[in-house]
Each structure stands twice: as C-alpha cells, then as structure tokens.
Design goal:
31% of the residues lie in helices and 18% in strands. It is α/β, with parallel strands linked by helices and 241 residues long. Strands 2-1-3-4-6-5 form a 6-stranded mixed sheet. It is globular, with a radius of gyration of 17 Å.
C-alpha cells in the first residue's frame, strides 16, 4: 500500500465510522472520497466507466463523477436504493450474483462492503471479473466475519455465533437487526477471499491490504488467522487478463 495511507487518515476514517448508523451521509461521504483516492493509485478514473456493485443509494456517485468517471450503480434492495429519497440516476436494480451487464463492458468494477451480504459471494466476484474489460481493474472491499465489526450492529456478540448474536439483538431492541445473519449477513473470511483471488483464471492479483490501516500496518494481511481479526476490512485489487 502506498505511503499516503497515514495514521491521521486512519483516525479520521475511524471517527467517521463511529457515526455510520447515526449519520450515514457523513460516513459514506468521507469513505467515498477516500475510496476514489485509493482506487486512483491503481487506475486512471478520468474517462473510465465504473460499475459500483451494491452501491446502495449512490453514496459514491458524486465522488467518482468528480474524478471524471462515468458512474453506474447497481443495488438489489429497493429500500437501500431509495434510502436518500429518489434513486440515483443511472442506477440499476439487480443482483450482484447475476450482473445484467455484458462481458468486458466496464473499465472498473468496484464493490465496497457488500460481499459479506451476499449468499453466494464467489458468484458475485466471478461476475465482477466477467464484466471488466481486459486490462481493467476489479476493486473488492469487505468485512471479514471475525473482524471486530464482522457482526455489524450485533458485534461483538457475533464471536459467540451469528444466530445467538441476532437473537440477543432482537431481545434487547425488540426488532431484527438491519443485517440479519443467515439472510442478509454471512460469514466470509479473508483467507477464502484470497484463495479465490489467487486461483481466479481470468484476473491477476495486484494488491491486498487492510482498507483503513496506515501503510505500515499492511503486513497483517500476510498472517493467517491474525488477518481475519485485525485487518478489519480487506481490499483485494485485481487486473483483468
């Protein structure tokens, strides 16, 4: 990871993250700007067509367009699609596991914090590679199950199991969590994602790093077991063959 990933950046992201539930516009606005800068280390965005798989209500749209990209969002959930009112113009409603996009159609296929919400994650990653043109970039970011935020709003009780954590949340709050284990939240490990990426016949791994960490902490992804917990959020960057 490049040295601009400083400790000050990590602290700013963590502070914004603490307000994800109460002020999602703030958090995702900060994350969108940071993501564009991060992605720009690997691909020129000016003039590129970017497909954002699981882009929700379009939090990243302005940031990508501001970098000169043509932004296309995709979101399967109607509630998420309209979470900020009207759906973002140019956004598709469809599943990431069966992208309604022709093969080799986009320059960049991007997905942020979606893989852990997909029942068949490797179907989605294969689809992301498929729709990316040769030489194009796939940017995949997700929260490993064993990370401190693996259970999302049920954390840290997910360490005792996804279903017990979900039941505990329901008892305490009188409602289901937004991210329901076994329905809209699943176990995905860093190790499994890395094995998939390294065995992918149609893409090469360009970089792997913990998304929110400073550059000097990137070594944690090389340590099996440890990376599941301390990477917090894992990024895999691939180049389409």
């Amino acid at each position: 990871m490049a040295r601009p990933a400083t400790l000050a950046r990590s602290v700013a992201l963590f502070r914004a993250f603490l307000r994800e539930q109460s002020d999602p516009d703030l958090f995702y606005g900060v994350l969108a700007g940071d993501s564009v800068r991060q992605l720009a280390e690997f691909v020129r965005l000016d003039g590129a067509t970017v497909l954002d798989v699981g882009g929700g209500p379009g939090y990243f749209a302005d940031a990508f367009r501001g970098a000169g990209a043509t932004y296309v969002g995709l979101e399967p959930d109607a509630g998420e699609l309209t979470a900020r009112g009207e759906a973002e113009p140019g956004t598709l409603r469809a599943s990431g596991e069966a992208l309604p996009v022709r093969t080799a159609a986009v320059d960049v296929c991007y997905s942020s914090n979606v893989l852990e919400h997909v029942r068949s994650p490797w179907s989605m990653t294969a689809e992301m590679v498929r729709v990316t043109r040769p030489g194009g970039t796939v940017f995949l970011s997700f929260t490993p199950w064993l990370s401190p935020w693996g259970g999302h709003e049920t954390a840290p009780w997910h360490y005792l199991g996804g279903h017990p954590a979900r039941r505990r949340y329901r008892r305490l709050h009188g409602r289901e969590p937004k991210n329901r284990f076994g329905e809209s939240l699943f176990r995905v490990s860093a190790g499994a994602a890395l094995r998939w990426a390294r065995r992918c016949p149609d893409a090469d791994v360009v970089a792997v790093f913990p998304r929110y960490h400073p550059w000097w902490a990137s070594w944690v992804v090389a340590v099996p077991g440890l990376r599941e917990i301390v990477s917090w959020n894992l990024v895999i960057v691939l180049r389409r063959r």
